[in-house]
Amino acid sequence: MKDTFSLKEKYKFWKEKWIKEHLALIIFLTVLTFTALIFAGIAHRFEFIAGIFLIGIGEYIYFRNKMMIYVEHKIYDNPTNAQK
After folding, report:
1. What is the pLDDT of residue 45?
2. Residue 6 backbone class (left: φ over 0; alpha: ψ -120 to 50; beta: rest)
3. Considering only Cβ atoms within 10 Å of each terminal Cβ, which end of the chain, N or C, has fewer?
């Protein structure tokens, strides 16, 4: 059967779907990270600020990779995807 959606359309659909499914977690972790940065700034602890900043970058990288794995798995037809 011929697919009627372009690769770009599939990518956009699955990316938006993943973000919608994980939006609450993303918002929670973002608020938690910024709250920790604010308290670290009040305490004037540079080491703590740098650590939280690095954790935030790590969270972004982790979730971005998880999203891309999900999107690629859904876009490209492979034998394991057809069974699900």
Report:
1. 73
2. beta
3. N
Read out DSSP for 35-61?
HHHHHHHHHT-HHHHHHHHHHHHHHHH
Rounded Cα gap, residues 81 and 73, in angstroms? 7
9-21 per-position pLDDT tens digit? 989 999 999 999 9
CA neighbor of 55 nearest in space, from 38, 75, 32, 81: 32
CA atoms within 13 A on the CB side of 1: 5
Backbone angles phi, psi at 56, to 5 degrees: -60, -45
Q: What Rg, from alpha-carbon coordinates, does the chain have? A: 18
* Spatial contact of 52 and 36, defined as CB atoms under 8 Å apart: yes
d(CA 75, CA 49): 39
